[in-house]
Design goal:
Layout: H1 14-25, E1 30-36, H2 40-48, E2 52-59, H3 63-66, E3 70-78
Antiparallel strand pairs: 1-3, 2-3
Length: 82
């Protein structure tokens, strides 16, 4: 699943309200995603919803656009206990 909100929809709490509750209701056990530390708004949103950093490494994936390596983070959240 890819989530990307338009700029006008950011900051309204839609990321948590629309997606996390839908996943919990569907019985999904957890969520794992990746982004870069460059995406400060997304990282702040995930931390606000209690996501934890599971791994971090430098990546060249965005080098064609940014001209350098960036730190990619894998972030996760347990939605349902076993």
């Amino acid at each position: 699943m890819h989530v990307n909100l338009l700029p006008a929809a950011r900051g309204l709490g839609l990321g948590g309200k629309l997606y996390l509750e839908t996943l919990r209701t569907a019985g999904v056990a957890g969520v794992q995603l990746s982004t870069t530390l460059e995406n400060e708004a997304a990282v702040a949103l995930y931390h606000k919803h209690s996501f934890s950093v599971m791994a971090q490494q430098n990546s060249r994936l965005w080098q064609p656009w940014l001209g350098r390596e960036v730190a990619r983070v894998t972030i996760g959240l347990v939605l349902k206990s076993r």
